[in-house]
Each structure stands twice: as structure tokens, then as C-alpha cells.
Amino acid sequence: MQKKTFDRDAARRRVILDAARDCILKFGYTKSSLEDIAKQAAISRPLIYRKFKSKEEIFGAVLEDLFETQYRARNRLSQSREAGGKSLCRSMKLCCLTRGGS
Q: With CB atoms 3.0 to 4.6 Å apart as the test, which of 38, 40, 47, 64 could cross-link to 19 if both were Cys?
């Protein structure tokens, strides 16, 4: 039962972070509201508040997720045997706000 709850919480968090990232890219940080994020995520605002205290906390989590994703992607690239130019090019492509490799 606890595993199901953890999986559901992780999935909700992922949906919120993805929606927040999309809203920030579309409207910018200042103009993105929790209402926009809730609509994009197809969840209620109170559910967002159960996971995050504020828009600032969501933004911080979006950035943390982005950096973790990029760190993992760069580690995979550095461990691969690709030519230096190809690795650099792929690394630069991964620097955008996508969840590359997820």
C-alpha cells in the first residue's frame, strides 16, 4: 500500500513539475500562476498546495529537476565513446528545458 502511495505522489509531483515547466516556458515565471499550472496539469490548486508551499518552491523544484536530468545526461555522454564533437553537440542540445532521456 505504501508503495502505491509513493508512486502516486511521485507521479503527481512529476505532472506538476512538467506543467510548471511548460507554463514558465510559455508565459514566463512572473506571468505563470498556480491556476495556469493547475490547468496545465489537469489538477486542482489545492492539490498543488499539498505538494508545494508556493510558486517559488515549484520553480526551485523545476530547476533542481532540470539540473539533475542534465547531470545524468552529461554523465552518460561522458562515459560514451562518441567523438568529441558529437558529444559536445548532443550535450548542448540537452541543455534546453526538456527532459532528455526521461
A: 40
